[in-house]
Write a structure and sequence with these properties.
alpha/beta, 14% strand
């Protein structure tokens, strides 16, 4: 019997995009490097090792995001209480849309995400640094 889901990923992403701020790569570039902005890379470490990363971005795997944001979680990370604007991105913009919506629903503001994700960032010629596995 086939799985009969209520909402597919396309609908979830479309609903998230309707409620969050979405930046073009050019808009994101103007924010990169500011002290009051934190770039959050949601990709899996293997993606970072393979493709590189945005300089000074913080890697928060998508599966740990809610736990790192919540001050009552044992995994809480204080940088989420900085008051900075958080710019989320993933490989193509779908995970980051969902993550930005979730973070916003949790009360983290201001948040946004990059349309097209890291792929669009890299294609635009924006800075990319190699990321080596941690030993």
């Amino acid at each position: 019997m086939p799985l009969n889901i209520k909402k597919g990923i396309k609908q979830l992403v479309a609903e998230a995009n309707a409620e969050i701020e979405t930046l073009t790569v050019d808009q994101a570039k103007t924010l990169h490097g500011r002290d009051d902005v934190t770039f959050i890379d949601l990709r899996d470490p293997r993606e970072l090792w393979r493709d590189g990363g945005v300089p000074d971005a913080v890697n928060v795997t998508r599966g740990m995001l809610e736990f790192w944001i919540d001050p009552e979680s044992p995994y809480y990370k204080e940088f989420f209480a900085s008051g900075n604007k958080f710019v989320f991105f993933c490989a193509g913009g779908m995970r980051s849309a969902l993550a930005a919506k979730t973070a916003q629903d949790m009360g983290l503001t201001p948040v946004c995400h990059i349309e097209g994700g890291f792929g669009a960032w890299k294609k635009s010629g924006a800075p990319v640094v190699p990321v080596e596995p941690k030993s």
